[in-house]
Amino acid sequence: MSYIEAVDLKKTYTPKGASPVHALDGLNLEVPQGTVTALLGPNGAGKTTTVKVLTTLTRPDSGTATINGVDVIASPERIRPMIGVSGQYAAVDENLTGFENLDMVGRLYHLGAKQSRVRARELIDLFDLTEAQNRPVKGFSGGMRRRIDLAGALVMRPPVLFLDEPTTGLDPRSRIGMWEIITTLVGEGTTVLLTTQYLEEADQLADSISVIDDGKVIAKGTSDELKASIGGQRVELSLVSQDDAAAAREILTRFGSTEPAVSLDGRGFTVNAEDAPAALQLILTEFASRGIPLYDAGMRRPTLDDVFLKLTGHTASADDAAATGTENTDAPSSRKAQK
Amino acid sequence: MTATIPTPTPNSVAASPVMNWLNDGWITTRRNLIKIKRVPDILVFTTLQPIMFVLLFTYVYAGVIDIPGSTYAEFIMAGIFAQTVVFGSTYSGSAMAQDLKDGIIDRFRTLPMSPSAVLVGRTNGDLLINSISMIVMMTTGLIVGWRINSSPLEALAAIALLLLFAYALSWVMAFIGMSVRSPEVINNVSFLVLFPLTFISNAFVPAETLPTPLRVFAEFNPVSALVQAARELFGNTPAGSAQSEVWTQQHPVLTVLIGIVVMLAIFVPLAVRKFANISSR
C-alpha cells in the first residue's frame, strides 16, 4: 500500500452568488514511501484543495484518504504529528522573529522549552537565516519568509512533507536554493507531496507526476513516461529573418510528420518527426541549398509543456502568469525569445 | 545551503492532555504578549485613550452634569472603565480575522495542538491589555478626584467583574472575527455597534435624564448593568440617587455574572468549533 493514498476525493465549494465550483472531482492519488510526487496543474485545478484535505485542514464531501494507513478524515489528531506543511503563503507570525516563530512551532509540537530552542537554532543555521534570526519576520524578503515557513514544517522532521507551491513567486536564486533543500530531504527518506505550476520544478524534483486539471488526475507517470506518451522527438529551428517563414513552413511540412507549429514571433518552428535525426539532416540540407540562414536548429524531446497542452488543450502556465504576475519562464517560445 | 540536514528526529515530551493544553495556551498567549511588545501602538492607544477619556469627561462635562450627592468624577469613572474594557475586547475579533488572512491559522491547525489554544491565547492577550488599561485608568481617576468608597474586597470584585465581562466578550468577538474574516470590517462594525451601546447607557449621564425611549434602552442595556455593578462595588452610587424599576438595574452584579456565564457558555464552544472547521481562503 502506498504511504499516502487518496481515493475518489470530491469537494464542491459554492461561492456567494456564484455557481458551485468542483474543486475536487473524484481525485485519486498514491504516493509511495520515500518518493516525491508532484501535483502539476494550473491555478484552480484543485492542487491546494488536495493538500488541504490531506493535511486535515478541509474535509472532503466524499472519498477517503489515508497516510501510513491512518484515516485522515476520521483521525486528524493522529495525522498531525506525522506531517509537515509549508504553504504557498508563508504561514508565519509577522511580529515574531525567525527564531521565535520556530521556537513557537516546537513548543506547540510539545518538544519542551529546551529542545524547541535547540531545534529552532539548528534550523536557523541550516536555512542560512542566522543574520535574520532576531529580526521580526515583517522585514524579511519573500525568499526568507518561505524558508522560515519550510523550516517550521521541518521542526519535527516529519516522515511526510506537504509543499504547496513552495517556489511560487520566488526569484530564480531562491527557487534553486529551495530545490536543493527539498532534494536533500528526500535523499534522507522523507515522503513528499509537492504541488507546482512549474513544469520545470516537477521535472527536477519529482519521481512521479500527477497532472491535475478540473479536480481530477488526468495523467500520471514519471516525467519521461509522460513525455514518451505523446510521441517521439521534435525538430525545432528558428529563422534569422521572418521573410523566410513561408519557405520554412513548406520544407518542414515536407519532412515532418505533423503540421509545423509556429512560435509567436513567427520565426520559430517545431515539427514532429518519426526519425528525427534523419529528418533534421534532410531539412538542414534543404535550407543550405536554398541559402536560408538559420539562427538555431536542433532536436528535442517533448517537454512537459507539450504533455500539458496535449492533455488539456491549454498550457499549464498560461493562466498562472496572468494570475500571479510572475513571468512565465517555462514555455519554450519565451525561453527562445530570451536567448 | 548546507548539504545535509543532520539532526536526529526530536521527540515530543510525553505529558498529560491537561499539561499539553496549558502549554499550548501559554505559548499562544506568549505570542500575543510579544506582539504587544513589538507593536507598541496597541499599548500606547490602550493607555492614552482611557487617560484622555478620564480627563475630557471630568473636566469638560463636570460643570454641566450635576450628580446630586456626589461629584461627576466619582460618577463617571465606572462608565469609562466599562467603555474601555468593552472596546478592549474587540482586538480578539480583528486579530482572529487578521490571522486567518495571514494563513497562520492554517499552520496552527496542522499542528498537534489543542484546538482551543489559539483562542485562549488570543483572549488572554485582550485580558492583559484590559488589565493594564484598568491600572492606568484607576491611577488617572484617583488623581482627578475619583475615590473608592467601599472595602478593598469590593473594589477587587468590581475590577474582576469588569475584566471578566470583557473577557467573555472577547470570545464573542473572536467568533465574529472568524465569521466575518475582515479585520477592517470588524473594527468598523464594532465601533458602530459599541459606541452607541456604551453611550446610550448610564455610563456618562444618569439614565433618568435621558428622553424616554433612550432611557428604556439604557436601562435594559447590558453595559448599564456593568456600569451600575462597578459603581455599586466601588461605592460610587450617591445616597439619594434614583432607583430604577428595572430588575437588571436593581441586581446589576448578578445580571453581569449571568451575562458572563451565558456568553462563555455559548461562545466558547461555538468559537472552538468554528476554529476547528474553518478553512482559510
UniProtKB/TrEMBL annotation, chain A:
It comes from the Bacteria. Coiled coil: none annotated. This is ABC-2 type transport system ATP-binding protein. Residues 319-339 are annotated as: Disordered. GO terms for molecular function: ATP binding; ATP hydrolysis activity. It is a peripheral membrane protein. InterPro entries: AAA+_ATPase, ABC_transporter-like_ATP-bd, ABC_transporter-like_CS, ABC_transporter_ATP-binding, DrrA, DrrA1/2-like_C, P-loop_NTPase. Belongs to the ABC transporter superfamily. Drug exporter-1 (DrugE1) (TC 3.A.1.105) family. Pfam families: ABC_tran, DrrA1-3_C. Keywords: Antibiotic resistance, ATP-binding, Cell membrane, Membrane, Nucleotide-binding, Translocase, Transport. Residues 4-239 form the ABC transporter domain. The lineage of its organism: Bacteria, Bacillati, Actinomycetota, Actinomycetes, Micrococcales. One of its GO terms (cellular component) is plasma membrane. It is found in: Cell membrane.
TrEMBL record, chain B:
The keyword Magnesium does not apply. Signal peptide: none annotated. It is a multi-pass membrane protein. One of its GO terms (biological process) is response to antibiotic. Its main location: membrane. GO terms for cellular component: ATP-binding cassette (ABC) transporter complex. Residues 41-278 form the ABC transmembrane type-2 domain. It is found in: Cell membrane; Membrane. It holds the Pfam family ABC2_membrane. The chain crosses the membrane at residues 42-65, 71-91, 127-149, 155-178, 185-205, 253-272. The keyword Transmembrane helix applies. Keywords: Antibiotic resistance, Cell membrane, Membrane, Transmembrane, Transmembrane helix, Transport. GO terms for molecular function: ABC-type transporter activity. Belongs to the ABC-2 integral membrane protein family. This is Transport permease protein.
